Amino acid sequence: MGISRALVGFCVSVSLASACAAQAQPTGGKFSFDLDREPIALLDGQWRFHPGDDPRWSQPNFDDNNWTLIRTGQSWYTQGFPHLDGFAWYRATIQIPDKPQDLSLLVPYVVTSYQVFANGQLLGGVGAMPPSHHPIGQFRVWAVYHLPQTTSHTRTVVLAFRVWHSHLWQDFIGGEINDGLRLGATPLIEQRKATERVRFLWSNGAVYCLALIAFLAACAALGFWRKHRSEKEYAWFAAAQFLYVIFMVLNASRRQMVVDVVEFDLAAGILMASWGWTTMCFFRILLGGRGDWLFRVILGCYAALAFLSILEAVAALIVPESLPFSIALMNESSSVLTVIPYFWVVGLLLHRAVQGRFDARLLLAPVLLQQLALLADNLHWIFIFVVGHEPAAYHFFYSLWQWPFPISIPNICDLYFFAGMLSIFVLRFLRTSRVEDAHQREFEAARTVQQVLIPHDTPVLPGFAVETVYLPAGVVGGDFFQVLPVGGGALAVVGDVSGKGIAAAMTVSLLVGTFRTLAHYTQSPGEILAAMNQRMLGRNNGGFTTCLVLTASPAGILTVANAGHIPPYVAGKELHVENGLPLGLSAATVYEESSFHFGPGQQLTLMTDGVVEARSATGELFGFDRTAAISTQTAEEIARAAQSFGQEDDITVLTLQFAGSEVMLA
Length: 666
What we know:
- There is one protein chain.
- The chain is α+β, with helices and mostly antiparallel strands.
- 46% of the residues lie in helices and 19% in strands.
- It is built from 17 helices and 24 strands.
- The strands form 5 sheets. Strands 1, 3, 4, 5, 7, 8 and 11 form a 7-stranded mixed sheet that branches. Strands 15, 16, 17, 18, 21 and 22 form a 6-stranded mixed sheet that branches. It has a 5-stranded antiparallel sheet with strand order 14-24-23-19-20.
- A hairpin with a 4-residue loop joins strand 17 (545-552) and strand 18 (557-563).
- Mean pLDDT is 81; it is low at 1-26 and 662-666.
């Protein structure tokens, strides 16, 4: 008995609800505030529709009962008007309260140009109308139109939309008024528009979050590149991600702007081509790919994509009728052209992963999933343009879940890729930093050794005025010199080890140590060079070492032996000495000695090739003539002159001025 009463009650409740719903549902083409007294009336649903154009159709007293009923939110192509172009009208009658009030109409984006009328009065519109303009197509924005002030005698408002659809789109894009039409009090409508804008932005939350992540990743990569300029993959990645951010934000925000389709496709095509180009360059450098014919084909694909974007825009301007074909060709071509780079990237990753590269193994899964998602997206557009509709499976592909905002499978794949790239950058940066720190410590150690070996204090030699200047081109140089007092005179050596850095510094330490040791046993320049040559055999590592040794006696006799070094200068003239091979090249090399008289007051000048080979900004060498001309100046003046001209190598200058034997006897 209780169950029977419950069933009867349920049936009665359903019947009453159905009756109320039938009473509240307006007839086709009519909407009302009065039925449920809402401050905002939702105008989605059936509207009266008729192709053609007649100014009388905007008037409130026009009889539209014989017009066809079609629904908003659906293309008229699917509602009995396939291949429709040109003008058409929508009409609906809205019952409003009899008290005066301030009303506005909220119009969502409309997939065509339109004008909206209220009781025959034009409120506004979006897009151009012929014959003054010939629009190609635009993305629309939400718009609010203020209705004229109603009076107590006006209980209805007839809204009419005059739409115009270009014949260029009749077989390509269907026209429609999207759902979201609302009429109500102006403050509430403005608030609703702001809410819709926020809702739209929130619906693209995944895109904006990924764009923010990409922007931060690009900034981080740019910072890494500024610290490690030799690792150009950071710069290519930063460029690719900046282009990705611009493309994604532009694509996501297009429905908030009035943008011509051709202009948008041109910008999007060039951005996509540039992004693909920089991305391929990034992967090639990161994974050590070859710049062979296949890679040039890859870059050619993106160059062709940019060319097709420009060709589409030009075709639309010159031959507007070709626009549908050129857009279809552009979309299908872009899908095909980007397939080849996808397989190239995945193939290179697999090859490097098999070879055991850590970066490739870490990136293999993220890149593979990202490339598969991009491939599926391209196939989606090919399917649309070839078959004419979207496969049902892609609804899941683009809307995996809805909280906190719509998230698609490509969004997740992109996020996975950024996580992989962040891991690689952090690990590479830490590894590079450790290597640089180790190199820096080695450089500091080498510089410390060199500072010990290169004398800073000018030696005091009776009968001689000695001046030395050493200007390394880098942190650690390859020049060396020594001046030692021997037998009342001077024993000097000056040399140049090819190369820079730690290896050169270690060679310098070996040579200086050898020279100082030999000075205890012999003062013969030829013997000293011969012994140093034996020590250097097999130690040049593909380079060479030049060296000059001389002795200056208290009587003013110079004895010189040379191993491929720049000859000395006396009184502004080059001394012609016997020249042997640089050190370490041949065990059989004999270094002949040359003797000269060194007069009182004369200056002997020794230097390395950093003076002669100084080069100006225009590429001019300092040269031997300028060197000879300034060889009588002080060591400081000679070194600074070469440095100011344009230093490219280490500069060492050593001068000895002979006071004469009479000074010593005194």
